[in-house]
Design a protein that fits this description.
This protein has one domain: Nuclear Transport Factor 2, Chain: A, CATH 3.10.450. About 30% of the residues lie in helices and about 45% in strands. Strand 3 and strand 4 form a beta hairpin. The longest helix is centred in the middle third of the chain and has 15 residues. The chain is globular.
């Protein structure tokens, strides 16, 4: 049976450990769509990423750009079998962020991923 809380925790763990390939393979549909405002690619955001391979490539760039993740807080969780949404405050090499994620879940995988973020503080020296 699908456990939304476990799914979310596993996803966060994959990102923090930079286990991108296994995360995308096990958690995203082949035709997944990811929307992101984080400026981690050559072109300016926002980005609309389509397909499993493109999602994987995006995450590799995103993780390299952020460098590391320290989670200060996870809040406003909505955990359902067909949708998961949560917000975080994280510290990375690019600064301190308030960010959020919402996922549309189909057959236990992410079909649509909506993310947002706001930089609270610049990077520490």
């Amino acid at each position: 049976m699908f456990d939304p809380k476990r799914f979310m925790e596993t996803h966060v763990d994959y990102v923090m450990k930079n286990q991108i390939d296994v995360m995308v393979k096990t958690q995203y549909t082949e035709d997944a769509v990811l929307l992101s405002p984080f400026p981690c690619m050559e072109a300016p955001p926002p980005y609309v990423i389509r397909g499993n391979d493109a999602v994987r490539d995006f995450y590799h760039k995103y993780n390299a750009w952020q460098g590391f993740f320290e989670i200060e807080r996870v809040y406003n969780q909505i955990l359902a079998e067909d949708a998961i949404s949560f917000q975080t405050v994280v510290r990375t090499q690019t600064g301190r962020w308030a960010s959020g994620i919402s996922w549309r879940i189909c057959d236990g995988r992410i079909s649509h991923h909506f993310s947002f973020g706001y930089r609270l503080d610049p990077p520490e020296d």
